[in-house]
Amino acid sequence: MPQEVSDFYIWQKELHVVPVIRDLRKSALAIESNVYDSLMNKLPDLDEHEQKVIRKHLKSVINQMIKGPIKQVKELSVKDDANFDLEFFCDIFGLPKEDIK
């Protein structure tokens, strides 16, 4: 099988985890927002630049933390028992399972 066909097949199998990845990112961004709001309440004297730096670094931490799980869930999606593994992944991260097909 040509590499392009194989790559397409893998890409197609990975499509059904897009909602799971979206939910993981949404959950992580909600945590980031809550932490940011908490910091702003505790540090009310920060100027606009300092607030921007904090927001940037919080987003960076979130992106770094979910990079590995996103890679893992994509790899799980191409396995034969993908639904079982994806449900387990959702359980671990407290994500809804309705979007798993």
Characterization of this structure:
- The longest helix is centred in the middle third of the chain and has 30 residues, at 48-77.
- The chain has four helices and no strands.
- With 101 residues, it is mainly α.
- Helix content is 78%, strand content 0%.
- The radius of gyration is 18 Å and the shape is elongated.
- The model has no long low-confidence stretch (mean pLDDT 91).
> What is the average of the pLDDT values?
91
Q: Which oligomeric form is depicted?
A: single chain
Strand content: under 5%
Order of helices and strands: HHHH
Measured distance between first and last alpha carbons: 26 Å
Tell me the structural class: mainly alpha
pLDDT below 50 for ≥5 consecutive residues: which ranges?
Answer: none
The main β sheet shows up as: none
How many strand units?
0
Quick one: overall form? Answer: elongated
Radius of gyration: 18 Å
